[in-house]
Design goal:
The complex is a heterodimer of chains A (295) and B (125). Chain A has 295 residues and is mainly α. Chain A is 76% helix and 0% strand. In chain B, helix 2 runs antiparallel to helix 3 and helix 3 packs antiparallel against helix 4. The chains are: A mainly alpha (295), B mainly alpha (125).
């Protein structure tokens, strides 16, 4: 009985493993199949690969040129059916424009219609823009942060040598001493007057970022790190975005157009400053990560 | 004569289309990755020029109100300006991201020429 069961067990085991005598012909057929159908293709040599790439690039060039030509021709045909340049009766100058221009001041408190429009009527759009900038700064940080893959030992030695031989440029430091405060004050002026004059969060933030970049070039990154460490930088970025989000949510929740004129103006100014903070930190972050890989 | 006056009337739009074509052909045909980004930025500028042109109205000034908006026929269309602002932000972000990617590619492969890069990439590296 035990012998029988052992035989059966062996049979079963052989059947499962495919090693029994009755499976020999099957294995053979499998081998034949393998020989017939799975013959490995001969490896392409480097020269062949190069040739195939060359033919691909030739065809790609012609196709791309034709494609661009066709698109340009279609655009040129479309131009001549477009309305006249600068005509007040054009379909683009419709009732929406009249509504924005006519009621921007007493609804948003901003004399600059564009600031009132992008921060109040189209506030969600600008919130999305701020998020895009924030995420772009995050991506650049991820890609260029000084880690093992991005910053090799050779880079470290080169940087140390550069630091040792670094001398402060006289012209740069003298001009910087005069120019940096002026640029800073101008940037703050543009940022705070965005609702009554040309400017606003994006332009003011860019000017502030430029002044920070000049400061960093003139006095070195250690001087910047004294007041803007990584922690402070992250706090500025995130707080700008959070102020915008919270304030705009409250504004929409309160019924948007129902609040007083003075409050609406205050809202536009604060949101402008929040956008300016995000733009400033993003601009400075781009510079810092591209040149040094850290703040 | 008719066509000439039409071309003069649509000069900004024609410039925009020419710039767009230049940028697109640079982006598609130049094997250098950084020059591709430059072409992309030229394309963006063409789009902004086109949008700004659509908002202009002859004989009117920028939309910064001096009389509280009582007379809406004094100002140009403010909407394209807002759209251009959006476009600029997206363009800056995309350029920064792609340049960062290119820097990493250069650090890993030592080249930013697409013709030298593609065979290396195809080896499953």
């Amino acid at each position: 009985m035990i012998q029988m069961s052992n035989d059966r067990f062996d049979k079963l085991k052989n059947w499962v493993d495919g090693t029994g005598p009755e499976h020999k012909h099957m294995q053979r057929s499998q081998q034949l199949d393998a020989v017939h159908y799975d013959t490995p293709k001969p490896e392409k040599t480097v020269a062949q690969q190069k040739a195939s790439f060359n033919t691909f690039f030739k065809a790609y060039k012609q196709v791309a040129a034709v494609l661009v030509g066709v698109i340009a021709v279609f655009f040129f045909i479309a131009i001549f059916s477009m309305p006249e340049f600068g005509n007040p009766d054009n379909p683009t100058n419709n009732e929406v424009v009249e509504r924005y221009v006519g009621s921007a001041e007493h609804e948003t408190g901003a004399e600059n219609v564009i600031a009132g429009m992008i921060l109040n009527y189209r506030g969600f759009d600008t919130f999305g823009e701020s998020n895009v900038l924030f995420i772009a700064a995050c991506c650049v940080m991820m890609l260029l942060w000084r880690d093992k893959k991005c910053f090799t030992d050779e880079d470290r030695i080169a940087l140390e040598l550069e630091k040792r031989h670094e001398e402060r440029d006289v012209i740069l430091s003298v001009i910087g001493k005069i120019a940096i405060p002026v640029i800073l004050v101008f940037g703050i002026c543009v940022l705070f007057n965005g609702h009554v004059s040309p400017g606003g969060g994006f332009s003011g933030g860019s000017i502030l970022g430029a002044s920070l970049i000049i400061f960093s070039v003139t006095y070195g990154s250690d001087a910047v790190r004294r007041f803007m460490s990584e922690r402070v930088y992250n706090i500025i970025r995130i707080s700008g975005l959070c102020i915008y989000g919270v304030l705009f949510f409250i504004y929409i929740y309160c019924g948007a157009n129902g609040i007083e004129n003075g409050l609406a103006q205050l809202l536009v100014i604060i949101i402008d400053i929040a956008v300016g903070l995000v733009v400033m930190s993003t601009m400075f972050g781009f510079y810092a990560f591209y040149t040094k890989g850290e703040l | 004569m008719d066509i000439l006056s039409m071309i003069i009337d649509h000069r900004y739009t024609i410039t925009a289309v020419v710039l767009f074509a230049i940028g697109m052909i640079t982006m598609m045909l130049n094997p250098n990755l950084i020059k591709k980004v430059v072409g992309f930025n030229i394309m963006d500028s063409a789009t902004f020029l086109m949008l700004a042109t659509q908002g202009f109205i002859k004989g009117r000034t920028a939309a910064i109100l001096i009389d509280g908006g009582a007379d809406t026929t004094l100002y140009v269309n403010p909407i394209p300006a807002g759209l251009v602002l959006t476009g600029i932000v997206v363009s800056v972000s995309v350029s920064a991201f792609s340049l960062a990617l290119i820097q990493r590619i250069y650090k890993k492969y030592g080249t930013i020429n697409l013709k030298e890069l593609l065979p290396v990439l195809k080896d499953g590296e």
